[in-house]
Amino acid sequence: MSESVKRSIWVYHLNTGGCNACDIEVLDALTPWFDAERFGVKLVPSPRQADVLLLTGPVTIEALPKVVNAIEAMPRPRYIVALGSCGVGGGIWHDTYSTIGGVRELLKILEARGVKVDGVYYVPGCPVRPESILYAIALFKGLVEKKVKSEVAYSD
Amino acid sequence: MVRVLKPVELIVVASEKGRVTVKYPYQEPLVTSDFRGAIRIDASKCIGCGACVKACPPNALELLESPERLVIRYFVGRCIFCWRCVDVCPVKAVVGTREFELATDRVEDLFNYTVHRRAECRECGSGFATRRMVEYVTEKSAVSEYYANECPECRKAKILNAVARRRGGV
Ligand code: SF4
Ligand code: SF4
């Protein structure tokens, strides 16, 4: 991933209907204590300037058209970093009537509309810790190794 | 009166205080003992009862069932780290960890599976419950050995037959 985004990553933070806990942790990651700007992260006010969309929340149906608009407005290469249980898998709202249930469903909708996304990062946590966000950024920049992997265990 | 520091004085104060920024990811993160991270299911202990699946608020744990297999699927990406599953597991197969570095670029990495084989019915041979669960029940109560090896359908039919025989035909 770091191949195509060599420069600092400019980030557009978009809450798609979450409870705000992840957003507070995003702010926390930007404080001098954690200081995400060490990695060149800069929050930008418009998706037109962004490399990365920092998506929190389970994508409510009310927010969906705006989310799609924001992603369409981003220049290529564009990446989505889905934060939190809601962003990744819909969280406790994954099957409720008013949300589509996270970035995986959003990607299907984007694909159906022909909107290309060059890469998606999934960052679980409820809410995500600031360290998790820093870890995701470091992973994006290729500074750390990926730790999780799918496991299949047989009981006998 | 609060005195506003001049920039020069600010530099002095700042250099006295020193650097506060943590060096993470190049240093160990601060993880306290009451922090809850991802869970792990110990497949050698799990009996496949599904209690954790019932207790999980966001359905991060799901049962995938087929006649031959019963699979407990754990999707970390949806887990809210409440550890209810840790509390309800009757055999303490679910352990909570302090893992939080779960970021990935492939969503498949976030799925963990625990696979169980079905127990086979003594009468009709079809699969039901799980082998481990039948073992667990038999261990707990010896008397259940007489019917624990039969699937619920056969058990039902047997009871109906027994009642019918008592009455001298249905
Ligand atoms: S910690 Fe809570 S959300 Fe996560 S798997 Fe266990 S019960 Fe489900
Ligand atoms: S509650 Fe424990 S024994 Fe039952 S299915 Fe879950 S992990 Fe296995």
Account of the protein in words:
The complex is a heterodimer of chains A (156) and B (170). The mean pLDDT of chain A is 90. Chain A has helices at residues 21-30, 64-73, 84-89, 103-112, 130-140; strands spanning 10-15, 42-43, 52-56, 79-83, 119-123, 151-154. Chain A has a single domain, classed as 3-Layer(aba) Sandwich (Rossmann fold), CATH 3.40.50.12280. Chain A has a five-stranded parallel beta sheet. Chain A contains five helices and six strands. Chain A starts with 9 loop residues before the first strand and ends with a strand. Chain A is globular. Chain A is 30% helix and 17% strand. Chain A has 156 residues and is α/β, with parallel strands linked by helices. By secondary structure, chain B is an alpha+beta fold. Chain B has a single domain (31-168), classed as Alpha-Beta Plaits. Chain B is built from five helices and seven strands; from the N terminus they run αβαββαββββαα. Chain B has helices at 7-17, 51-55, 84-88, 131-140, 152-167, and strands spanning 39-41, 61-65, 69-75, 94-96, 111-117, 119-120, 127-128. In chain B, strands 2-3-5 form a three-stranded antiparallel beta sheet. A two-stranded antiparallel ribbon of chain B has the order 1-4. Chain B is rod-shaped. Chains A and B meet through α3, β5, α5 and β6 of A and β5 of B. β6 of chain A pairs parallel with β5 (111-117) of chain B. The complex binds iron/sulfur cluster (2 copies). One iron/sulfur cluster binds at residues 41, 46-52, 72, 88-89, 91, 93-94 of chain B. The site of one iron/sulfur cluster has 14 residues of chain B, from α2.
What is the gist of this entry?
The complex is a heterodimer of chains A (156) and B (170). Chain A is α/β, with parallel strands linked by helices and 156 residues long. Chain A is 30% helix and 17% strand.
